[in-house]
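Milestone 3.1: sequence recovery, worked example.
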C-alpha cells in the first residue's frame, strides 16, 4: 500500500482534484482510499439515531452495519488525536491512499495551488512537498502538472507515493 498527500490552502481545489483523480485511478484498475483531515469538530452521525445515542451514552466505538456498507466511529474522548500513520494502519489494504490535509505531516505531498486563491506557496518552505498541481506557471525543480491534466497528476501521484510498509517510510520523509 502506498501513500501520498494533497496539501494546499483552503480554496485551492484539493477536494475538487480528488473527485476527478479518484475515478481516473479506479478506471485504471487501482484500489484507492482516502484520509481527510478536518481541523474542526465534525460529526458523521445524526442526532437521534441509535448510533448517535450509543456514542452520547459513552461508547468508545460504534460500528454501524447494513447490507450496503459499514462504518466504524471511534470517540477519542480524552485520547490524543492519532497521527496519519496510525490512521493508515486502520485502513484495509489498497493500492493507494491519498491524504487530504495533514498539511504539516511528514509524508510526500503534492501541493495544490490556484493563483486566484491569493495565497502563498507552501513550497519551498515545506521539504515534504514533492510535486505541484497548479493552474499557473511556477519556476521549480519539482515535477508539476496543470490542475486540469488529470492523467499527468495521476502519473505524478503514483510515482511520488511511498510504500507504507517500508520500515524507513516515516524517517525518509521526515529526516
Amino acid at each position: 500500500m502506498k501513500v501520498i498527500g494533497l496539501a494546499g490552502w483552503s480554496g485551492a481545489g484539493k477536494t475538487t482534484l480528488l473527485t476527478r483523480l479518484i475515478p481516473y485511478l479506479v478506471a485504471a484498475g487501482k484500489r484507492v482510499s482516502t484520509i481527510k483531515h478536518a481541523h474542526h469538530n465534525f460529526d458523521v452521525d445524526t442526532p437521534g439515531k441509535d448510533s448517535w445515542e450509543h456514542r452520547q451514552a459513552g461508547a468508545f466505538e460504534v460500528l454501524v452495519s447494513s447490507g450496503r456498507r459499514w462504518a466504524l466511529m471511534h470517540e477519542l474522548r480524552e485520547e490524543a488525536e492519532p497521527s496519519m500513520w496510525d490512521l493508515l494502519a486502520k485502513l484495509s489494504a489498497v493500492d493507494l491512499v491519498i491524504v487530504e490535509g495533514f498539511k504539516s505531516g511528514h509524508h510526500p505531498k503534492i501541493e495544490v495551488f490556484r493563483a486566484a486563491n491569493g495565497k502563498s506557496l507552501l513550497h519551498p518552505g515545506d521539504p515534504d512537498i514533492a510535486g505541484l498541481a497548479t493552474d499557473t506557471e511556477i519556476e521549480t525543480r519539482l515535477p508539476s502538472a496543470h490542475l486540469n491534466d488529470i492523467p499527468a497528476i495521476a502519473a505524478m501521484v503514483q510515482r511520488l507515493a511511498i510504500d507504507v510498509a517500508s520500515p524507513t517510510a516515516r524517517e525518509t520523509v521526515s529526516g
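The radius of gyration is 18 Å. The longest strand covers residues 2-7.
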